[in-house]
Amino acid sequence: MSLVQNPVLIGCLAAFLSSGCYPAREPRWGNCGEGFAFDGEQCVLLTTAPKPEDPLSGGYQLTTVAADGAVMVGQAVFEPLGPSIYRVRYDVGGASEEGIASLHDGVVSVGVGGADTGVVEYQHVGGGRLSGTWLFHGNAQRGTEVLGGGNADWSGVYNIETGVGPDGATYGGSCDLVVTGDLHTLLWHVQGPGGTPDTYRGLGLRSGNRLSVGFGTGANTPFSVAQYRVEAGGRKLVGRRASWVTTSPKAMPETLTR
Predict the structure, then answer these.
(1) Which of 43, 200, 226, 251 has a CB 3.0–4.6 Å from the CB of 242, allowing a cystine?
(2) Average pLDDT in the 214-220 region?
(3) Distance CA 196, CA 191 (A)
């Protein structure tokens, strides 16, 4: 059969450029329509995976109980500084204060007070040893610390088996830990390489196997510690707060909701 005798084929060749008798040209990115793209074979829907929401970031309504038993309300705002690390601002009763917080296994540990304060998280790892990480106010880099030589009830005179600051500098020394009811009082005697010994004070609250400790680096530095359990996917934080005072500190209930 010749080309002349096949009008259908002639028509197809004539219409080739318009693709009337030829499979449709592959679509390009701009030809798939808004929200679609060409994957090499077909137009597919473009999807953007939602960015995981930070479990704590944002504002909370705060209800706390003062040492004299008075109920106070205010706000707290968590600002992410790094993975599971937050700057916290509290506004209660017309006063404002800041803290540094760490989230681990559903427990939020907060050291409150300002530039000369921080927070430590310890976990009892058996054999009279505590393993922890710590943060200075406003710093997103963690230090690490392992204490050895304590008792099963967490009390004791510990040796700092390993201590590494956020800047990588190592230190040693000891830590006296006294348990009084709900409160854990700590006194570190720290010796850096070739440095002068320093003494730091800490106050801790424990939930299960996790001890949250707020600390101050100066002899007269005021500070507090707060520890919360995360509930309702981060919409509610339930816990306690205690402040370093010279006589009879108390752990008082505190709840954050949004």
Answers:
(1) 251
(2) 90
(3) 7
Rg (CA), the chain: 31
11: enclosing H helix or E strand: helix 7-14
Of 145-154, 158-167, 242-251, minimum mean pLDDT range: 242-251
194 confidence band (pLDDT: 50, 70, 90)? confident
State the Cα angle at 115 between 110 and 118, rounded to 5°.
30
Helix (H/G/I), strand (E/B), else coil: 12:
helix
Q: Whole-model pTM?
A: 0.78
pLDDT for 53 equals 73
Residue 40's CB: how many other CB atoms inside 10 A?
A: 6
The alpha carbon torsion through 214, 215, 219, 220 (nearest 10 deg) reads: -40
Q: Pick the closest to residue 215 from 194, 190, 192 (CA basis).
A: 190
Q: Which two tokens stand for residue 224?
A: 């507090």
Q: What is the DSSP letter of 48?
A: -
CB 28 within 8 A of CB 38: yes
Q: How far apart are CA 180 and CA 87, in angstroms?
A: 29
Q: Which residues are CB-contacts of 249 (< 8 A; sequence separation ≥ 6)?
A: 183, 203, 242, 243
For 244, the 3-state DSSP assignment is coil
Dist CA 205 CA 83 (whole Å)? 23
